[in-house]
Write a structure and sequence with these properties.
This protein is an alpha+beta fold and about 80 residues long. It has one domain. It has one helix and five strands. The strands form two sheets. It has a three-stranded antiparallel sheet with strand order 1-2-5, with no helix packed on it. Strands 3-4 form a two-stranded antiparallel sheet. The mean pLDDT is about 95.
């Protein structure tokens, strides 16, 4: 899961792509110590894609073309 918080607008967005993962259907739970997060099947990324997204953020360049953003669900 990749999320982005814009401090200026105080909005949080979640990344998704156009190739839903059939292994993780909508509603699959990402479980960790802080809690459980239900995910959509198009929000699961390969580790190489996550690296590309973070590298773009760090360099201050446009995100890769495969990533799109939608409002993140509330906490």
């Amino acid at each position: 899961m990749v999320e982005h918080f814009d401090a200026g607008t105080r909005t949080r967005s979640r990344a998704f792509h156009d190739k839903p993962n059939p292994v993780f259907p909508d509603g699959t739970i990402l479980a960790f110590r802080a809690g459980n997060i239900p995910m959509r099947s198009d929000e699961w990324f390969m580790s190489t894609q996550v690296i590309e997204i973070f590298a773009a953020f760090l360099k201050g360049v446009s995100f890769p073309t495969f990533v799109r953003w939608r409002p993140a669900p509330g906490f």
